[in-house]
Amino acid sequence: MIRRISSGGVFEDKAGYCRAVIAGGFVHVAGTVGEGDTAYDQCRDALGKIERALSEAGADFADVVRVTYMLPDRTEFESCWPLLRETFGPNPPVATMIECGLIDPKYRIEIELTALARE
């Protein structure tokens, strides 16, 4: 069984995707950007959106097994580390950071992750 979760974001409709999909025992969360002026602010906002999607799927950050961070400037990533350490606490997932262009130059970080589904 596959269940789709939409957050109603503008890119979901424009690009034809949803925020998260529950399938195969996992919650797959699409690349998520946030609002704000800095990578830290955008990271915090993106994590809030991800947290809501995980909650709707019946999961939380303790269930995350894999995360990918994408940033146009890798030097901005270190400012996010304290927030990520706090978010994942004693349950850190495996992680990858990729330096790349994002869909709009105003975005400083995009986060994609996979969590175990409890359903």
Automatic annotation (TrEMBL):
InterPro entries from the UniProt entry: RutC-like_sf, YjgF/YER057c/UK114
CDD domains, alphabetized: YjgF_YER057c_UK114_like_6
Pfam families: Ribonuc_L-PSP (PF01042)
Protein name (Swiss-Prot/TrEMBL): RidA family protein
